[in-house]
What we know:
With about 200 residues, this protein is an alpha+beta fold. It is built from eight helices and five strands, in the order H-H-H-H-H-H-E-E-E-H-E-E-H. Strands 2-1-3-5-4 form a five-stranded antiparallel beta sheet, with helices on one face.
Amino acid sequence: MAKNTQPIAKRCKALGISPAVMGYAKKNTTRNSGSNMRKKQSEYAMQLKEKQKVKFIYGVLEKQFRNAFEKAASRPGQAGENLLQMMECRLDNVVFRLGYAQTRRDARQLVSHAHFTVNGKKVNIPSYQVKAGDVVEVRESSRSSAKFSKLVGPEAPVVALPAWLEREAGTLKGTVTRLPERSDIDYEVAEHLIVELYSK
């Protein structure tokens, strides 16, 4: 599968996002910190940057992202907000948001290796769309592994959950209490520029 191998910190700087959004709290780059080759961007460049930003954050390739946009545009409401909601509702993102993985890339791999169930059924598709009321849980056979066993108990890391998710204390079980709203997006993005780009 194709993937971007550019350094995370460098890519984040180019797209104007914090590495913390990607799950990399300690990454940073000071290379060329004062330089800005081109201060004024064209309208197309700004639209492209916003699209690349969202694709990069969620680790989605162009064809998959385009298909998601078309589905978002066909739904009632604003296409841009629908698209962000669909990205947030991806199972790999939910696994990351629940604190079961440090990054979305790690979460995508864990989902692909079938470590999770949704409503008791094994799901190994990272792009699987969760719905309100869905219960996402680490599979019984995976809980004893070192990766998951350290997520429960007194030494478990504290996770700042978004308002639309709940996680039962001391367990590896989380619930989607509602669908995410535009106000739940924790990074800056001008989604209307993505809509304009794809509407040409």
